[in-house]
Amino acid sequence: xxxSAALQHVLGVRKETTRRCEPLSVEDYVVQSMPDASPTxxxxxxxxxxxxxxxxxPLGVPPHDDRYRYLFNSYYEAVGPRHPRPERGLLTRPxxxxxxxxxxxxxxxxxxxxxxxxxxxxxxxxWLGAHHEQQHQELILTDLxxxxxxxPLLPAYRSDDAGPAGYAPGPAAYRAFEGGVxxxxxxxxxxxxxxxxxxxxxxxxxFEIADRLxxxxxxxxxxxxxxxxxxxHWLSDGWAWVQREGIRAPLYWLSDGDAEPSRELTLRGAVPxxxxxxxxHVSFYEADAFARWSQKRLPLETEWExxxxxxLSRGGDMTGTFSELxxxxxxxxxxxxxxPVLRQLFGDTWxxxxxxxxxxxxFRPLAGAFGEYNGKFMCNQLVLRxxxxxxxxxxxxxxxxxxxxxxxxWQFTGIRLAR
Length: 419
Prior knowledge:
By secondary structure, the protein is an alpha+beta fold. The protein has helices spanning 3-20, 40-56, 68-71, 96-111, 123-149, 216-224, 236-245, 284-293, 301-313; strands spanning 174-177, 180-184, 200-204, 207-210, 253-254, 263-266, 269-272, 350-356, 382-385, 402-404, 413-414. The strands form four sheets. Strands 10-9-8-11 form a four-stranded mixed sheet. Strands 5-6-7 form a three-stranded antiparallel sheet, with no helix packed on it.
């Protein structure tokens, strides 16, 4: 994975980031709706800062603006102090125009590296920067959606005439696996984050995993059966969260008064709930409670990865509902395949697993500031797999490990059952 290929990939990724912002007004760029979200303007600046800090700086290229090193550092202690995350929305300056100028300046300086003798030395940082930016492409959509949910007008990111699928998936079938000793972790010669390594062996007991994601219709049955009001389905922390926050449905589901939810906020605005579509924007607590109510469980991340790798080895592909192919960024309903063939593994929704986010045996973080990228978050998080409808195409693989705290649900998070 040489420097020239890495540079071309980076420049293509950065064009896609800009494309995602095309539907926005200048006011949309600056909103921060909660501490865990960031303004679109900040995402654009931070991803530019990443290349300036870790690619251009080591090659002796002077910074565009010395002040940006403080403003747009995210969490890298090795780089130095930073503006507090909950206050990113207060950064009215630099302006959106100035941030876009910054972005163009960094792009130009990156493009100037073409043919440079130093390009191969920067290859690893370029590849990491590209995948880092793809993560922020997803965050741009999920953070915008959360911001729009706080607006009484319930605005749309992009309008289209997409409606319900018009068909209902049949009951979930289950694909059986014998278990045994299997290998987990990235085994390719391509890019992987350090938390996907090293490849190692694990012992799996026999298990079965659902061939599709849980649908909105199935989650509605959970609601109708008092799922959010009965503590027997919930972990203790989850029940305390439900009570404290008054949770009665997935995030962005809308109802009139005490009526059953009938609409949901999407990036197309508020639309009727599609009963055949995968349910999304649920926390780990909700996913686990639904699984218990269904007399099933959530898969382990090792089970999920083994099943996904097996699917690909049998001729399956990673085609799914990804953001470039489906710009409305909504999960798609699954069509029955006539047997327990795994579907919706990649794209549509991130899938909660029952596995805590911990290091693999023999894990070693990367040297320097890059060692802060994943390892220091291995506490109080659960692993998700598979990508979502907001994930850039080509950004996921069977070994990819996403992670969030159990109450998080502003990401496109859904449910696949196991037993």
